[in-house]
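Re: [help] complex structure
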Amino acid sequence: MSARLGGLRVLLEVGVALLLGLALGAVLMALWGYDPWKAYQALFQGALGDRFGIANTLSRATPLILTGLTFAVGVRAGLFNIGAQGQMILGALVAVLIGGLLDLPPGLHLPVTVLGAMLAGALWSLPAAFLKLTRGVHEVISTIMLNWIAYWFTGYVVIAYLSQGRRSLQVDPTARFPLIMAGSDLSYALLLSVLLAGLVYWALWHHVAGYELRAAGLNPEAARYGGVRPNRSLVWAFLLGGLAAGGAGAVEVLGRLPFAITNDLSNLGTLGFDGIAVALVGRNHPLGILLSAVFFGALAAGRTMMGYRAGVPFDMIQIVQGVIILAIAAPEMWRIARLRPRRARTPAAAGPAGTGTEGTEGGEGGERERERRQA
Amino acid sequence: MDFAILLVTVLPVALRVMVPIALAAIGEVFAERAGVVNIGLEGILVISAFFAVVGADAFGSPWAGLVAGVLAGLGVGLLHALLSIYLKGDQIISGVGINLLGLGLVGFGAVVLWGSRSFQVPNALWVPGIPVPWGSVSPLVIVTVLAAPFTWWLLHKTAFGLRVKAVGENPEAADVVGVPVERVRLLAVLYGAALAGLGGAALSLDWTHTILNTLPAGRGFIALAAVVFSKLNPLLALFGGFLFGYFDALAIQLASAGGAGEEGQIPYQFVRMIPYLATLIVVAGAIGRARFPQAIAQPYRRE
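Output below.
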């Protein structure tokens, strides 16, 4: 298949998934007596209705780009790294610590704070890498456990040492990202996210280490045969992902109100988990992630207006996200019609001659499938 | 409280805490034997916990709630099976979608039904305990303890179990000899999802007596850890479930024993970390790596 046709199909699959998510969300809202049309109108108004809406959308997209990169880099290396949540939380904590407690000259304070947060995220990715390499612990299990440990640890530090009322102390103005648009939440943190996305693109597609990382992800055995050390690539993927996730915590705390962490960590939300959806919709490619982060940023920005005008609980957005991911999980969903006649074929018709090659063909299909999903 | 005494007094609590983790783990062992991974256990737990409360509330009976929980588990299992078996989708991504759907659905449902993000289950809808000489035992604890040997028997002593293992190890060969690969996988996934559904119902109706969208708090993933720990043996999955349930219960007892957060005490946030740390340590220390079926997480395509 030509590359252009493949690209079209990817667009079609993603488009169908997004529409399906919104459509099922509408059905659910209608079932419960909400007005879906009014709700989505409010969502659109809140997200893209005026320049403040657009600024809010981009501001919401800023950390999602980074946590999306975390997941995507993992997938490229053959990992299912869902540890962005915990790494993001620790990044936010370190951002508050450096940004709020350290006195540094303006111009230096912000970069040092961001760097510290990113390193904290990278550090928290290491236990999962270590457990996988030495003990064979699957990263889905280890990263979720690490997420919860980070959650309770940060909750403790915020309440025990940093609390000022219902939130931690705020970061100094010298450690905050300057605003792009006055009166909005849109800061130059967006620029940082976009730059990091570019950097990841460059590292993965224009640098040997990235090539090796992707090769190890596609087929570790073949990569090893070709001189790649898959284990090293794996550690790089964890570290790179951790840097990005830590950065997500930093941009959230240093880029928008309340410039702190609330006692219940609620202003950090599920930015880490949302990154999974962002990466999947963005097809685990930095450019796709930029676009899909804006889409999910719009959902996050518009949901307040949706709740305000149509009374819809904001959990609706999570349902929509869930359906979108489920639709993406089965890219052949829209080809059900084409699948059916094939399944109707009887085993006898396939014949013993055909069965001999079934195994290898099935395997190749799976491999192709995998490549296509990642491409 | 004396720590040694606590270690013993926590046992009855541990049994109750074990139920959701162990049931989900035992069911998942069965499904993984058929080659289907479901990392959406967390989502099944919360969705079935929610529908169990809805069902119990609607019919005024905890038993109806348990049935509703199992049905909800089956529904989610069917969705996962449809996507990953029939549509050849990615099992891991489907699982992530289920988890996210669970968060949203239960959050949305709680607000819509009860006007609040969390809901306390009234006493009348709690699962009644079975009286025994030393107090009472939850019937769900008994079901859980029996589910493990039953699943083991199903897997190793029945023709169906043989087919399950066959489609997990070598679906092509199973297909050649006439085993309906997709249907066997479907049944295995449904069995696992039904057990997880019962576990979710136990979570809300028998143990916490509450429902909110973060109720499982990672226990679905702890169940996955128990599956790894068990090396896909249902009996060891029960033991793993008990082990993790024990640490979980210990944390809960320590946190509520009073004094947590006061001077000289361990802050309760650190106590709450115990189950997650214990899971990491146990999984890392599990001797030898689990051997998973050959065809695990791979959709079967006949061409």
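The beta strands of chain B are 119-120, 130-132, 135-137, 210-211.
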